[in-house]
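Protocol step 4 of 6: structure prediction from sequence.
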Amino acid sequence: MARLVRVRMLTEREGQKLQQVVRRGSTSSVWFRRAMMLLASAGGSTVPAIARLMQADEDTVRDDVIHHFNEVGLSCLAPQWAGGRPRLLSPDDEDFVVQTATTRPTQLGKPFTRWSIRKLVDHLRRNISRPVRIGRETLRCLLARRGISFQRTKTWKESPDPDFDAKLDRIEYAINERPHRTFAFDEFGPLGIRPTAGSCWAEQGHADRLPATYRRTHGITYFHGC
């Protein structure tokens, strides 16, 4: 005949703690129900009787409460349950999502200059090499948790001349080594073309800096010299 499952002999401290939880009540219904099960088992009640009394499954009474109490003591009153379903995104997937969000869409062959949440979710889902299924709200929370925000980009003028550095070195030499024999000439224009800032997803305080759209190919508008 199989041996009846019962709690081991309670210590004085354990008995007082269980009675205190039952008599005074507890903010946690789990604590209250488990303390009731343990006291009932200590009083001689069988597992089926306790299950009927507490409207619980016999396996829960036997394995999750009685056996667990016999192993760890009063710690069984507060089980460490993992809430929610398992994570769908691995840390590598999250890094890939952040990397994609901070990359200009044009570099990935997209016909637009900035990501919206909807476009980014659609791109990640349709990515052939590494598809990632993620919802809009989950993506928004992930970017915020990683410090990625929607920011204005900055621009600057950059010369397309391949000899730019060599010319700049000659100018620096003339100004510093021969200041009394150097004449400086400057030019500016056309005045109507000015760089326009854009927007992108980037780390906070680290927005992208893009080359300005300013490009002069038909001479100059104004010239002045000294």
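Step 5 (inspection) to follow. The CA atoms of residues 98 and 143 lie 7 Å apart.
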